[in-house]
Amino acid sequence: MTNASIFPKIEAPQTDERPVTDTRHGVTRTDEFAWLRADNWQEVFRDPSTLDPAIRDHLNAENAYQSALMEDTVELQKRLFQEMKGRIKEDDSSVPMKDGPFAYGSSFKIGGEQPRYFRTPRDGGAEEIILDGDAEAEGKPYFRIGGVDHSSDHKRLLWAYDDKGSEFFTLHVRELSDGKDISDQITDTGGSGVWNASDDGFFYTRLDPNHRPSKIFFHALGDDPANDRLVFEETDPGFFMNVGGSRRNDWIFIGINDHETSEYRLLSMADPHAEPQLVAARETGLQYDLEEGGDIFFILTNADGAKDFKIMTAPVTAPGRENWKELVPHEPGRLILSVLGYQDFMVRLERKEGLPRIVVHDRKTGEEHMISFEEEAFSLGLGGSYEYDTDVIRFSYSSMTTPTQLFDYNLRTRDRVLLKTQEVPSGHNPEDYVTRRLMAPAHDGELVPISLIYHRDTPLDGSAPCLLYGYGSYGIAIPASFNTNCLSLADRGFVYALAHIRGGKDKGYAWYDDGKREKKTNTFLDFIAAARHLVSERYTSHDRIVAQGGSAGGMLMGAIANMAPEAFGGIIAEVPFVDVLTTMLDDTLPLTPPEWPEWGNPITSEADYKTIAAYSPYDNVGALAYPPILAVAGLTDPRVTYWEPAKWAARLRKLKKDANPVLFKINMDAGHAGASGRFSRLEEIAYNYAFALKVTGKAKAEPA
User: Fold this and answer.
1) DSSP label of 55
2) What 8-state DSSP symbol labels residue 238?
3) How confident is the model at residue 282 (pLDDT cuts 50, 70, 90)?
4) Catalytic annotation present for 672
């Protein structure tokens, strides 16, 4: 099948070339499309109408082009959307979680795009809507709710929203007695806040003009925000910062970190005006997280060579590193992911042999037990509890064939109560699908896990199309969880596969280390190895594999397109980080300094420059035969700026040696996460799936 023949012959947008040169470490590069980066990008994030008209015209032309190429899939997109929507319980509701006299939860109404937040009496009763997302979003093309936090006296609600997609959140305080917001509105925040012990004020993070969380403030209710007290300022632009609180309401945690180093400062609620207390000074490569434990802190850390982390304790009166004592030792290959502390128990989520597990530690006896599961591959979520003095926590479980189940678990009696099973209104029979876990041999002998699902009637003779998804950065593992959307592909004969490649922590921390900085190409080679293994095992064939990834996974898409274009029949790159070298050389961009530990600093290091230059997708576009490529972006995205995929699409069209199209679709009303409403997001997924079906010749296939 010639992929180009399935698209109408329409001329792609012509992109002006205005060459700009840049010389670093004796190397000169020319960027002919640099003009697509708006000089006033900071202003555009806040007010998209200020975008240079020439750039706007070009982006509109790109949207017109991709729309014309995909016009014959409009009805297919509608069918896919209706299928995916039909698998969602429209009036779905969470199981409320208890906190004092109330239980708090969220729900959707039929046809609603945004969540509603509610509370009931602790042991059940009438729902009280405390925040209606649909009402707040009315008339706004983009709307996303950030943090929602009730005060400990249950009288007020602190909530945040972003109505541009640029992730500058506005904080509001709502009186729950009458449902009205008071005048304490604070703009340019990180999206959440933490109440103080007396519930008459809150701590929050403010973003600087470059979208970096540089300052923690305290706001007293009723005061002018201009007079808010500066609690702490981080002057190093290479570090993220956040503020959180304890369930006992006795501590404020100020967390400071990049991708390999962390630092905490503490503020006692008993003396909130004191200088925040340093726990352990930042030391390159030292990571630690704090969790409350009454008179102690639990400390999850990689100190002393504990690559897969261990758990320490320290007294709250002297939490410095010199007082850390080991509680759970380091065990190579067992990656401890998170820790929750309660009055009588400590609970940890860990991953071993590629699978997650929950372990309960009795603080009095030291006895431990594991919450067990039966399936071969699955995903867990540890929800915990609002309350500290409790024997009951909450967790979720799913697999690629099993809808999400929500449980309350008694830490003392070990009783497990099923609270809710994800409903699929249009119907779902797990027996209709098969899930497998494969191991693909990589270029250096490592084995790359692949999780996959397909319909039981799908022939495994190499004829099935396949959507292969990958990410592989920042240590983020891709869970083998239930995904109702991908069933629309499986029902049309697709094999849906997840490649657990290096750069994530799917096989422990070493799996992450082996896919970053100078070893970054392992990530790309692992993904290519996964594709080739699926072909060798007769699950699919190369011209029927559609690769998909977003953000750093979009960088993966750009890299594999350059390295092995013949291995794929199509590529979907969502908000793709494809201009890696240029972005890492621009220290004014929001995420550049904090990202240097992940990718390297090409400004100061010639070695890092050469490493990034060798794989940066935009810099390595060549005179190759590429498969059809779809790039998707958002205009106000502060994480992966719109001009990266815009430039990439233009350079691909300029240099490639084939007739396959490059489509660039940009949401002019959204940012990194795409459309904000739950159904609007489904429309975007339906578009992507329609592209996958089109390029594999399955656009007219009916679901099983």
Assistant:
1) H
2) T
3) very high
4) yes
Query: Following DSSP, what letter does each residue of 328-347 receive, concatenated?
Result: E---TTEEEEEEEE-SSEEE
Cβ atoms 472, 502 nearer than 8 A: yes
Compute how many other C-beta atoms are within 10 angstroms of the C-beta atom of residue 181.
15
Strand 240-245: give its sheet, edge to edge. Answer: 240-245, 251-257, 262-268, 277-278
> pTM score > 0.85 for this model?
yes
Task: Pull the structure tokens for residue 396.
Answer: 């979720």
Q: Is position 451 annotated as part of the catalytic site?
A: no
Residue at 666: amino acid letter: I
Cα 181 to chain centroid distance, Å, stands at 30
Rounded to whole angstroms, the Cα distance separating 660 from 394 reads 49
Query: If you average pLDDT over residues 628-647, what whole number do you get?
Result: 94
CB of 258 within 8 A of CB of 271?
no
Residues 391-406 have pLDDT tens digits of 999 999 999 999 999 9
List the beta strands (DSSP E) in 302-446: 310-315, 325-328, 334-341, 345-352, 355-362, 368-371, 379-384, 392-398, 405-410, 416-421, 433-441
From the CB of residue 349, how many other CB atoms can be counted at a distance below 10 Å?
A: 19
Q: Which domains does the chain have, with CATH numbers?
A: 17-85+427-695 (3.40.50.1820), 95-233 (2.130.10.120)
Written as six digits, the tokens of 98 are 């208890």
Instruction: State the average pLDDT over residues 347-361.
Output: 93
Residue partners of 588: CB distance under 8 A and separation at least 6: 210
Cβ neighbours of residue 178 closer than 8 Å, sequence gap 6 or more? none
**CA 638 to CA 551: how far, in whole Å?**
11
Report CA torsion sign: 564, 565, 570, 573. positive
For residues 86 and 325, what is the distance between their CA atoms, to the nearest angstrom?
Answer: 52
Is 99 in the active site? no
The pair of structure tokens assigned to 345 is 């128990």
Catalytic residue among 455, 608, 672, 676: 672
CA angle 198, 201, 202 (to 5 degrees): 110
Q: What number of H helices and E strands is found in the chain? A: 13, 38
Catalytic residue selected from 408, 514, 579, 637? 637
Task: Report the distance separating Cα 175 and Cα 162, nearest Å.
Answer: 20
d(CA 584, CA 576): 15
* Residues 208, 233 contacting (CB under 8 angstroms): no
Q: 694's torsion region: left (phi>0), alpha (psi -120 to 50) or beta?
A: alpha
Mean pLDDT of the chain: 95
Catalytic residue among 166, 385, 473, 551: 551
Under a CB-based contact definition with an 8 Å cutoff, are residues 186 and 203 in contact?
A: no
Residues 438 and 453: beta-carbon distance below 8 Å: no
Structure tokens at 250: 């006795």
Terminal CA-to-CA distance of the chain, rounded, Å? 23
Q: Which pLDDT tens digit goes with each residue over 486-517?
A: 999 999 999 999 999 999 999 999 999 999 99
